[in-house]
Write a structure and sequence with these properties.
Layout: H1 2-16, E1 23-27, E2 38-40, H2 44-47, E3 51-55, E4 64-69, E5 74-82, E6 95-99, E7 102-103, E8 117-126, E9 130-137, E10 141-151, H3 161-171, E11 176-187, H4 191-202, E12 207-210, H5 242-247, H6 264-273, E13 277-280, E14 283-290, E15 295-302, E16 308-318, H7 324-329, E17 333-334, H8 340-343, E18 359-360, E19 363-367, H9 411-432, H10 434-437, E20 440-445, E21 450-451, E22 456-457, H11 465-469, E23 477-481, E24 487-490, H12 492-497, E25 505-508, E26 517-520, E27 532-534, H13 543-549, H14 552-572, H15 576-581, H16 584-592
Helix pairs in contact: 1-3, 4-14
């Protein structure tokens, strides 16, 4: 932390004295016309910004174009912030820059070096103040460009996320507006976040729902395409699950072709129809302000404008999946597998480690009337006659992460490893099994990864395998999980062939369909951040216990419980843990009542 701060200060002092006004920063996500490029905002925390992605499935995408104005005519040094996403030895994400229709004689995106970096494009002599810049994709294979920087003087450009944030705020004159004050601020617009927001709003709370994606639903949206699982009809309190059923995607399945089945439109209309909900879309959490272990406000980055929004509230709920809100607030957490000594779970590992379940990108191919090529390339994972997969669509066990990548810090690398596997297997099929796959074309591959496991925030109870298998009855038992313990691990043969780059899993779920257990409310709030709820895969459970609560109908019911608890917190001006210690009787009466409770 101190090193990052010092590097930021040094950068700032150098930058201020380096002819600041003789430069222009062009953020690609702000381009006038993005053409066929896609704004990818999944990795802001890791690399600092949204960026443009050339996601063409092997076919170059249309140019992205923008107009820009220089402070004066003349010669400018050109720098491009980009990444070779598959330097094995050189990746395929090549693209070029065109200034006023003239191609810059430098190719970007395939340097053979790892990580995001500023790459020099040489010098351009601009004859006019008003100009045009185009990004030209050369391959359709995930080229990526964050920003283009033009300067008349030599400068040291920032690398760290902290320095980049300062750099952008000053160069783009980013402003911060007040987004308002709310009874409940819900961060995360997946199933859990929707249900928490709607339930609280229907009980009269003023709610802010913050979603960093353009659609609601998280893993069950059309972006990720995972059908909702679990059962809402076996709950201890039948009242729970009503909102889940309103937003369910019963027939969508995994990786479905018909995007309407994922109910993006229905969910958006439902949220907008609630007068007590203010929806903040494409808004990514970047900062949290706390005082005395209490969250006071959050700061959001508007992905579409790069401006900031400050929102304050009385209560907060982390429904991000990655526990982003809780981690920034200083909440206690676990990551990976706990040891037997820590939890006394019979199936726990002997020593704790960082193994988590993986992340998946859905894909499918379509039969066409003509043969098409999809050549094998060196950067792809390489398959063989004795090891390949005869598939025309994704299946559940294609996932990356596990213990080889950190599911948050290495999120982009995880997604990209999935790309290498999917493209590599498809290239093998198209090259060596033409009689079967020659007339199939890859028509869809989600660039948004769906995660199964991440950080887990600690509450007053840490749910364990023993609680589930021994049916421990807690007085505050609320949500019934019906999925059973279902955990994924790297497939052994895949791990042997692709060590530390595994992308195939196997599942351990002997009691998945019959194991039913109701877990306690005390798993749904932070033990050390006073006004923080959580709902989703980031609640207070061990790695093993997560295997039963992580499916989306269950996480939706968690959200509904948070909505009810937030109502009592406002009614009695109390904290989430006091709902258990002081008002448990009224809480359970609310859940038992058939009529709506206000």
């Amino acid at each position: 932390m101190m090193r990052n701060l010092l590097s930021t200060i040094v950068f700032v002092l150098f930058f201020v004295g380096a002819g600041y006004a003789q430069s222009v920063l062009l953020e690609t996500e702000l381009f006038d016309n993005k053409g066929g490029w896609t704004v990818d905002a999944q990795f802001i925390d890791q690399m600092g910004s949204p960026y443009l992605l050339a996601h063409g499935l092997g076919t170059p995408v249309e140019d992205a174009v923008t107009k820009f104005k220089l402070p004066q005519k003349g010669k400018y040094q050109v720098w491009v912030r980009t990444k070779d996403w598959a330097p094995f030895p050189k990746g395929p994400g090549e693209f070029q820059l065109l200034f006023n229709g003239e191609i810059l004689p430098v190719t970007f995106g395939a340097s053979g070096q790892k990580g995001w970096q500023w790459v020099s494009g040489g010098t351009v002599d601009f004859k006019n103040v008003e100009n045009e810049l185009s990004l030209r994709d050369l391959t359709g294979f995930e080229g990526r460009c964050d920003a283009v920087y033009l300067s008349k003087v030599r400068e040291v450009l920032p690398d760290s996320v902290e320095a980049l944030r300062w750099f952008r705020k000053n160069k783009l004159q980013i402003s911060q507006k007040n987004g308002g004050h709310f009874d409940l601020v819900v961060v995360g617009g997946g199933v859990a976040g929707i249900c928490a927001s709607v339930q609280a709003a229907r009980l009269g709370l003023k709610v802010a729902l913050i979603n960093n994606r353009p659609v609601l639903g998280g893993n069950s949206s059309s972006e990720v395409r995972v059908g909702m699982e679990g059962d809402v009809f076996s709950n201890k309190y039948p009242k729970l699950g009503r909102i889940v059923r309103e937003i369910d995607n019963f027939f969508a399945g995994v990786g479905g072709v018909d995007t309407r089945l994922y109910n993006d439109v229905t969910r958006k209309k439902m949220v907008l129809n609630e007068q007590n909900i203010t929806l903040f879309e494409n808004a990514h959490l970047i900062d949290v302000k706390t005082d005395n272990y209490t969250i006071k406000s959050v700061v959001l980055l508007d992905v579409n404008t790069l401006n900031e929004i400050k929102i304050s509230g009385n209560l907060f709920s982390d429904c991000t999946g990655d526990a982003t809100l809780g981690i920034l607030a200083g909440a206690d957490y676990h990551y990976g597998r706990e040891s037997k000594a820590e939890t006394n779970e019979p199936d726990a590992s002997d020593v704790s480690d960082n193994l988590v379940m993986g992340s998946s990108n859905q894909w499918h191919a379509k039969h066409t009337n003509k043969e098409t090529d999809f050549p094998i390339q060196e950067w792809m994972h390489q398959f063989s006659d004795d090891y390949h997969f005869d598939l025309i669509r994704s299946v559940w066990n294609w996932e990356t992460g596990f213990n080889s990548f950190h599911t948050v810090r290495d999120a982009e690398e995880i997604r990209d490893n999935n790309f290498r596997a999917i493209y590599g297997n498809w290239a093998y099929l198209k090259t060596h099994k033409k009689e079967k796959f020659g007339k199939y074309s890859l028509t869809y591959l989600s660039y948004v990864a769906g995660k199964r496991e991440s950080f887990r925030l600690l509450g007053d109870i840490l749910l364990t395998q023993n609680d589930i298998t021994q049916r421990v009855e807690y007085p505050d038992a609320v949500v019934t999980a019906t999925w059973g313990i279902d955990l994924h691990y790297p497939d052994k043969e895949n791990a042997r062939r692709f060590p530390n780059q595994e992308f195939i899993a196997y599942a351990v779920h002997p009691l998945r369909e019959v194991d039913v257990y109701t877990f306690p409310y005390r798993c749904l709030y932070s033990r050390n951040i006073n006004n923080l709820f959580m709902a989703g895969r980031n609640i207070s459970v061990t790695h093993i216990a997560l295997g039963t609560v992580r499916v989306q109908r269950c996480t939706g019911m968690m959200g509904e419980v948070v909505g009810y608890a937030a109502y009592l917190c406002r009614k009695y001006a109390c904290l989430p843990k006091e709902v258990y210690s002081k008002y448990l009787g009224e809480f359970t009466n609310i859940l038992k009542a058939e009529e709506d409770y206000r």
